[in-house]
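Supplementary Note 2. Why include the ligand at all?

Several targets in our set were suspected to adopt different conformations when bound, so apo predictions alone were not considered sufficient. For every target with a known small-molecule partner we therefore ran a joint prediction. The input for NDP is given below.
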Amino acid sequence: MKQEFMKKIVESHAGEVEFHQAVSELVASVMPYIKKNPKYLKANILERIVEPERVIIFRVPWVDDQGRVQVNRGYRVQMNSAIGPYKGGLRFHPSVNLSILKFLAFEQVFKNSLTTLALGGGKGGANFDPKGKSDNEIMRFCQSFMTELQRHIGPDIDIPAGDIGVGAREIGFLYGQYKRLRNEFTGVLTGKGVNWGGSLIRPEATGYGCVYFVQEMLKTKGDSLEGKVCAVSGSGNVAQHTAAKLIQLGAKVVSLSDSSGCVYDPDSFCQEKLTFVKKLKNIKRGRIREYADKYKCKYFDCRRPWNFKCDIAFPSATQNEINATDAKNLIKNGCICVGEGANMPCTPEAVKIFLKAKILYGPGKAANAGGVSVSGLEMAQNSQRLSWDSQEVDAKLKQIMAKIHNQCLCYGKEKGFINYLKGANIAGFVKVADAMLDQGVV
Ligand code: NDP
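The joint prediction is reproduced in token form.
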């Protein structure tokens, strides 16, 4: 039945390999559950849930610093609004295409369902490369992108946020243009600056949340993060705050990476070294190689940090960054846990290896849901015209991560092992599917 279903998906979403991968992973978990609950079959929920409610594709023209006219392609995939308005980030990266955004939007639907908040799922972005662009070029691009996007979003319709290549700077430019065009000051984007409607802890939330989720997983084994050696990939928003929280909780972070290569620091990162990384990546927009020059440690060109000995791996850069060989290396080197900060960072073969080895494997839609959770809290604060202090937001984030963990346990318990992938997929699916049943054929 799964094969038959996937054959149809591959035919009707031709060439969209990342989307096929995300659908296949969910369907493998939920198909047995659906067979036991024929109401979902009767209402054709699976066929409907894989079809985006709406896809918007648009031209983004802009002028570079040399006065040349450039053009990029912009997207917004509004995947599912059964449990709330569309919510999900914007990605600016040259690799962006419809397949990648459909996979991200699809994952987002189930992730948002797990957060326990009323959030539907969407994702968007452009095949624009922010690398090497001046602040003025970034601003002109963001203004052009928002000039079209503003027609399709709103605080009760669709609320975008950041993702790869979209951080505080881009959210600022996007928000400014939205406000100018619509003449309204509303919570239409999250990840805003704290003095103009942003939530404290939102920048930290995905990384912190991932660490809290891993803490919950370790607790099921009577274990903790204290002294654990952690390999983190990426050096952007998620990686920086994952590393910061790990260091704070007594773990040893030994690696970071970027799209050029990775650094291995056997003396481990500390808050001071992380401050260097934050300045390097967020302000100077340099390469991680410069960390190795500064702290006299090893840099590996074109490599990812999965060959080093570690107890826990935190893939926090991009999709499919851990393949089967990496997964085998991690297991061989004693890795007992994987917390996915990135979306779909492990290939299906790598996931199979982790599940077979029965290590603690926390899939992205559960482990990295902290970011969208605090985005949900930012929306609540905007609606109330209030801002909560960081302790309050952090406490709520911790509670939400614990609740997500509990939902995974609810559906993921197997003999002597917790299958978090199955647990997250079924728990995320049930809430959305039940809402779709209640709302009829729409
Ligand atoms: P950033 O743009 O802040 O950082 C991305 C990091 O990953 C950078 O170090 C970048 O390197 C590296 N990277 C990007 N593409 C590749 C690639 N193809 N190969 C190797 N390295 C790459 O993004 P975020 O930290 O926000 O996002 C990281 C991941 O986390 C993504 O998968 C995103 O979808 C996911 N995520 C993010 C959330 C958030 O709140 N920001 C929420 C939930 C998930 P370089 O500097 O060279 O570009």
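The first helix runs from residue 2 to 12. The radius of gyration is 21 Å. Comparable summaries for the other entries are listed in the accompanying table.
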